[in-house]
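Revision sheet: structure tokens.
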Amino acid sequence: MATHNTTEVLVGGAVLAAALAFAFYATQVTGVTRSTVGYDLNASFRSLEGVSVGTDVRLAGVKIGTVSGVDLNSQTYRAETRLSVQQGIEIPDDSSAVISSEGLLGGNFVEIMPGGSMTYFAPGDDIEDTQGAVSLISLLVQFVAGSGGDKEQ
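Predicted:
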């Protein structure tokens, strides 16, 4: 009978260790435990498709922050977005924000395209140059319909 108890304890310990390892992995991948001290920038997008609170903000492919707020402006019908950027990362004030895709099946993220200015955004500044998400479905419909804009005149 002691063999059953020892086996059960070992199997239970292995299951518990696997569950803890999975929980640790999940928190590292999702960034739940990371607290980013930084500053906010604002951007207004025509289309924010595929982007929500918690979506990555990247510069040169490196995560530098997250989307911390999204609201609809009822006058302009644009998505007012708050981007939380890590402290110590200075972004030139002529930079643009673009909604990019990780690939055909990947998710979207906000990409900062740096400009060449020698002055930088201050906390709370607005990124004026933005480009919203491009809908893959509308591109497919345009392609199939033949309205790609390459017609001869």
